[in-house]
Amino acid sequence: MDRLFTIGTLARRVGVNIQTIRYYERRGLLQPSKRVRAGITGIGYRMYDEDAVRRLKFILHAKELGFTLKETEGLLDLKVDKTARCGDIKKKAEEKLMEIDKKIQGLEGIQRILKDLVNLCKSKQSTDRCPILKAIDEKEG
């Protein structure tokens, strides 16, 4: 029989807080392996197995790579789909790469503008003549 973990143990093992696990449960990304009733009160405890640990780590790694939770859900669906192929995953990764490239280009543009503004700034100048504040103030749209 697989070893079962409480939600607190799972959270500590993977390095997240309990609320994160509950959120992923609400989103349908993670489910307890079983629920156990304990004591006279019959309070239910969520119990997780090693598959839940692996699934939670997968979710966290996908997040580190920039995948949204919705995209991660799609990856998880493809992972268990017997008809899915590596090419399906590759397509998702290529789409993410294109999105990241666009973000990088946008950030590089912002970086150039900020560098130019910083170079124009004279530290002793009053704030009413500050080129950085003027550029922010004059930006339309």
In short:
The protein is mainly alpha-helical and 141 residues long. It is 62% helix and 9% strand.
What report would you give on this structure?
A three-stranded antiparallel β-sheet has the order 1-3-2. The chain has six helices and three strands. By secondary structure, the chain is mostly helical. The chain starts with a strand and ends with a helix. The protein has two domains: 5-65, Multidrug-efflux Transporter Regulator, Chain: A, Domain 2; 85-141.
State the main characteristics.
Multidrug-efflux Transporter Regulator, Chain: A, Domain 2; 3 strands; 9% strand; mainly alpha; 141 residues; elongated
Biggest β-sheet: count, sense, barrel?
Answer: 3 strands, antiparallel
Query: How would the global form be characterised?
Result: elongated
* E-strand count: 3
Low-confidence stretches: none
Number of helices: 6
Q: Rg, please?
A: 24 Å
Q: Level of helix content? A: 55-70%
What is the chain-wise order of helices and strands? EHHEEHHHH
- Count of individual domains: 2
Distance between the termini: 61 Å
CATH arch. level architecture of the largest domain = Orthogonal Bundle
Tell me the β content. Answer: 5-15%
Mean pLDDT: 91
Strand order of the largest sheet: 1-3-2
Structural class: mainly alpha
CATH domain class of the largest domain? Mainly Alpha
Instruction: Enter the CATH topology name of the largest domain.
Output: Multidrug-efflux Transporter Regulator, Chain: A, Domain 2
